[in-house]
Structures are given as C-alpha cells and as structure tokens.
Amino acid sequence: MKILGIETSCDETAAAIVEDGTKLLSNVVASQEAIHSKYGGIVPEVASRQHLLSMIPVINEAVFGASIDWGQIDAVAVTYGPGLAGSLLVGVSAAKSLAFAKGLPLIPVNHMEGHIYANWLEEPLLSDVSDSFDALESRARGAFAERFTCAPQGTNYKAFPTIAFEV
C-alpha cells in the first residue's frame, strides 16, 4: 500500500510517499525559514499563504520522486492538528480534494502522534505487539512536552496522550 502524506501544521510544506508503513519512497519539504526570519518568528498568515504557493509543486515532486504515478497511490494521509489553523486548513483542503478527486480514502493524522510514529518509519516498532509502553514527545519551539502511552491495537500500536506539560 502506498500512501501520500501531507503535512502543513506550521511553516513547512511537506509531502511524502510511504509504502507499507515502513518504506519511505520520497520526502519533499519546502521550508519557509528564510521568509519568516526577517520577522523574527513565524507569521501565521504568511505561512498559510506560502503553503498555498508550495502545496502542488511539493506534492508533484513527492509523487515524481517516488517513481510512481497517481494510479499507484492507495490513500492520502494528512495532519489535521495540532498546529496553525490557517496552515492546517491548506493541507487538509488539498488532501481532501485529492482524495475525493481520485476516489481514495483520507487518513487523518495527529501531528504529535506522527512525531512518535516517525521513529519507526523504516524499522518495525516491535516484532511482538503485546505490551504497552510510554513515549515522551517534546518540542523545542514553545517549550512543551507530552507523554503518550502506546498501546497494542491489532498488529500495531495506537498512541494515547496521557499528560501534557510545559518544560
């Protein structure tokens, strides 16, 4: 199964093609760092407008970079939050439009859970999915951390937030 993933939660427009949950076929990121640096930080409205300009080229480059065509994509995944509202709106709108136009399932992805699962993108989480474990996710921006309990769910894990705190 090949999934097109779209991420626009803050100031980077990203798209990737992942096969069978563990094989990264392509990963394209359009940074906005140079744009926001002159303001001394991220300007949400500027970020949203830049996502509008970057979205289609980034998605096309991800599909091309994976050496596949649109007919080989089985689903579209997209970050739905948390993040900047306008930025998320651009990514979710693009993902919903693509999924609808291509007749593909749409998979909503929690931004924080995505950080946790990314650690096992190319290597399986565990061979025996039976025990729960805790994972700590922290962000340098905003000095914030969140603890998740990763519990078995079928043949994989589901991350459940258990506590959030400022550090």
Structure characterization notes:
With 167 residues, the protein is α/β, with parallel strands linked by helices. It has helices at 33-37, 44-65, 85-102, 111-117; strands at 2-7, 12-19, 23-31, 75-81, 106-110, 133-139, 144-153, 156-166. A hairpin with a 2-residue loop joins strand 7 (144-153) and strand 8. The termini are far apart. The model has no long low-confidence stretch (mean pLDDT 83).
Which features does this protein show?
167 residues, alpha/beta, five-stranded mixed beta sheet, three-stranded antiparallel beta sheet, 4 helices, 8 strands, 31% helix, 38% strand
Task: Present the secondary structure layout.
Layout: E1 2-7, E2 12-19, E3 23-31, H1 33-37, H2 44-65, E4 75-81, H3 85-102, E5 106-110, H4 111-117, E6 133-139, E7 144-153, E8 156-166
Parallel strand pairs: 1-4, 4-5
Antiparallel strand pairs: 1-2, 2-3, 6-7, 7-8
Helix pairs in contact: 2-3
Q: Care to give the gist of this entry?
A:
The protein is built from four helices and eight strands.
β-strand number: 8
Mean pLDDT: 83
* Gyration radius, in Å: 16 Å
DSSP strand content: 35-45%
The low-confidence runs, each spanning 5 or more residues with pLDDT under 50, are: none
Number of helices, where a helix is a run of at least 4 consecutive DSSP H or I residues: 4
Order of helices and strands: EEEHHEHEHEEE
* Biggest pleated-sheet summary: 5 strands, mixed
